[in-house]
Amino acid sequence: MLQAIDLVKRYGSVLALDGFSLSVAAGEIVGLVGHNGAGKTTFVEIVSYLIRQDSGHVTIDGRPPSASKGQVGVAPQHIALYPSITVREHLVLFGKLAGLRRTALDSAIEDLTVALRLGAFIDRKTAGLSGGQQRRVQAATALIHRPGLLLLDEPTAGADLETREAMLDVVKQRAGDGAAIVYTTHYLPELVELQATIAVARNGKIIARGTYDELVEGLPGEVCLIHDNEEEVRVSTTQPAATLIDLLSRAERPISTIEVHNPSLDDLYRSLAVSDAS
Amino acid sequence: MLLDTGYRAGPIAALRESVYRIGALAGHNTTIRLRDPGQMISYLVMPMVLMLVLKPLYVRAVEGGTTKVVTGLLVMFSVFAISIAGNAILAERTWKTWDRLRVSRAPAAELLLGKTLPIYLVMIVQQAILLGYGCLVIGLPIPGNIPLVLMSILIWAFTLLAIGALLAAIVRSHGELSVISDVGALTLSSLGGALVPLSLMPDWAQVAAHVSPGYWALEMLQAAVAGDTAGTLLPAAILLGIALISGAFAIRRLTRGWGRGGLL
Question: Could you report the predicted ipTM of this complex, rounded to two decimals?
């Protein structure tokens, strides 16, 4: 569905994309992760046809982004809503811009109202909504026409639990319906829940791609025991369960706290950075 | 299944789709305008009050004082309305919504039409109401050639809209827009003879007036109200030229987005 090959984009002296390549099949969710400045948003903007790449190629269903307008749904990183307009009016506007007519539009609004839990505030102006509610409205405007390609740029940033749950449910459902989805985030657990393919961006290129298990395989987590006298024992390990059992069997004092940390996004970045440098 | 949006190929179907989207955008922007009518009310009420207060002064000072006070204040406060156009476009940048529209199926020309049509209508209505008020309350003679007056209003509103769009495309904040539109409007409209009749201004100002769009607007409107077709056409052509140049620049800038720079 989406093919981006060797994209290069420069802003003055800053190289935002440096050979960025990524493909997403219909029905696939690709979680695009990377630190700020890794090139995620620039990539989303190129695919959305908001900016042009300096070199490289992008096709959406075999056509360039300029010929695919309206086939893409974009929820940008920042909230971009009209403050004096209600949620329903937003959905009507973006639905009509996508070409939806009465019955299809009403039906799409009804579906999204349920799926993203908008019912309690659908006739309220967006200026009065919480951050999480605004996130859901923004996602709804991107989803209203059931696009074949969805670009969701940190759709749950700063969102509450309800927003996160609703968002993940809808993303899974749309992927199940055949949409290709690019989902940028800083939260690895979301991508695990979405069973997404993870693509790691660094310095304007994709440096690794795979499932969560494939990418974190061999990365050390950490087991931490805190004794009743506040003495701490921390062990870095690739086998947290076995290590925990071993530590517990050898503990000589009562234990007040047990902490087990699985490999995090930072651990993944660090390991990839080391391998990239070497 | 993904939704069939009803999009069909073919020129007639494409035109119908285009009109549908422009209608959606214009309706949306009209709603935004109506929910924040403060500026529109100000620029309607203030000239009405000033016409009443200044009319005796104008009548005593110059021949045709009634026409001059009505058209002068109409031009001055319609120039102030540039900020309505500028703010409406610049707000899309503040809200970061312009790029969301650019991602949609609507091409840039439709976005601009949908955005500016309601503002254009506001400007036309403002000028029509002020002229009507001038006739009914201030004593302006009812123009003999209404189509000529209507054409003048349409051209002047188009010029103001294009200048407003240009300003919105180049300023970096609402503060900058406010400074440029308020100071610029006052300077250009005063220089053009909108506040003080040109014949009472110093010689250098009478010469400098020709660079002000306000001067040409006054010339055009006063000629139109007097039913002077020949006297209306030259200033109308000059204003159209200003509008087309400003509009072309604004369209070029707005279709590419604002990028990531700037103060907003």
Answer: 0.80
